[in-house]
Amino acid sequence: MRIGILSRNKNLYSTRRLIEAGEARGHEMHVLDPLRCYMNINAKEPEIHMRGKELPVFDAVIPRIGASITFYGTAVLRQFEMMGTYPLNESVAISRSRDKLRSLQLLSRKGIGLPVTGFASKPSDIPDLIDMVGGAPLVIKLLEGTQGIGVVLAETRKAAESVIEAFMGLNAHFMVQEYIKEAGGADLRCFVIGDKVIAAMKRQAKPGEFRSNLHRGGSATLVKLSPAERATAVKAAKTMGLNVAGVDILRSNHGPLVMEVNSSPGLEGIETATDKDVATQIISFIEKTAQLHKTRTKGRG
Asked: How many domains does one find in the chain?
C-alpha cells in the first residue's frame, strides 16, 4: 500500500515509528507536510499538489495534525477524503475532538462520565458558575490550550473569580470544571484502536503540580484498567468517530471520568511505558480496514 503520513516533521518519534512499522510490513510510506500541500478544488477531479507537483493516489493517510494547524490540516485531509483516500481518522472526527466544549457536549449526550463542567460569557454569571461545579477548588481551562497549557487550579473562590475575570477580560474562551481531588494528580491515558484499548498508562504529576502531562514533567507507568475504564475509553473514541484515539480518564469516587479525547496521541510515552509496539498495531489496523472511497463522511462537514 502507498500510505501518507500528514506530519510537519519526519523526525518526530511518532512519525518515525509509523514509517518504520509501515516499511517493515512492506508498505510505501511518505511523509507529507500539510502546510506544504495545496489543493485544486473542483467538481470532477479534486487534486492535491506539493512543491509544484500533483501528489499520486494514496491508499491511506495517517493524520498527525498539530492543534495549531487544525483548520488547514483538516482541510487537506478533507481533500484526501474527497479523492477517495482512506483516512485513519476522518477530518470531521478530528474537528470534533479539537473543540473541547463540543466534544464534552457529545460525550455528555452519550451518558459518558465527565467532570461537572460550566461555561459562561458574562462576569455576572461567575458566582453561579462556580457554584455549578461544586465551588473551589476548581479547574479553569482555556478551550484552545494543549499539553496542559492554559489549565489553572484555583484553590479558593477568590482565586477562581480573579482568574475567570482575567480570562473574560482577554476575551478568551474557557470552561470551568470540578476538581477531582481523589485522582491525586494522576490520570489514565488509554490508547484506543478500533474497538479495543490496546495499551494504557498512568500519568502522575510531579510533586507540587496537578497537571499530569508528560510535557510538564509527569511520569508514566504501566497500569491495569478496570472493565468500566476500558468500556468508557472505547465508547468515548466511538462517540468522536475516531478509529485511533488517546482517551484521558480520571479515577473518581463515582467511576471513570473522561477529561479529553485526543485524535493524534503521541506514541513515545505509551510505547515506553507499556513496551508495546503501538505503531505496528496502527499499520495492521489500516491493512484490515483501508478501502478506497470508504470514508463515512466523504469529506463533508
From this structure: 3
Cβ-Cβ contacts under 8 Å for 164 (sequence gap 6 or more): 126, 129, 130, 140, 174, 176
Contact at 8 Å (CB) between 140 and 174?
yes
Contacts of residue 231, defined as CB under 8 A and 6 or more positions apart, other chains included, come to: none
Q: Binding site residues for Mg(2+), as ranges?
A: 248, 260, 262
Residue 110 cell numbers, joined: 452519550
Length of the chain: 301
**pLDDT tens digits for range 239-288:** 999 999 999 999 999 999 999 999 999 999 999 999 999 999 999 999 99
| Bind-site residues for Mn(2+) | 248, 260, 262
- Give 83's contacts (C-beta < 8 A, 6+ positions apart): 46, 47, 48, 57
Confidence at 301, pLDDT banded by 50, 70, 90:
very low
∠ at Cα 293 (43, 13), nearest 5°? 110
How large is the average pLDDT for residues 218-246?
95
User: With the C-alpha atoms ordered 174, 175, 180, 181, is the resulting torsion angle positive or negative?
Assistant: positive
Q: Quick one: 206 and 165 in the same domain? A: no
Rounded Cα gap, residues 110 and 280, in angstroms: 31
- Please give the Cα distance from 301 to 97 (Å, whole number): 14
Block residue for cell numbers 470534533? 96
Tell whether the model's pLDDT for residue 228 goes beyond 70.
Answer: yes
Instruction: Give residue 17's domain range.
Output: 2-93
Q: Give the pairing of strands 244-252 and 186-193.
A: antiparallel
Whether residues 187 and 204 fall in one domain: yes
Residues comprising the binding site for ATP? 141, 178-179, 187, 211-213
| pLDDT band at residue 146 under the 50/70/90 scheme | low
Residue 147 phi, psi dihedral angles, 5° rounding: 55, 35
Please give the annotated binding residues, written as ranges.
Answer: 141, 178-179, 187, 211-213, 248, 260, 262
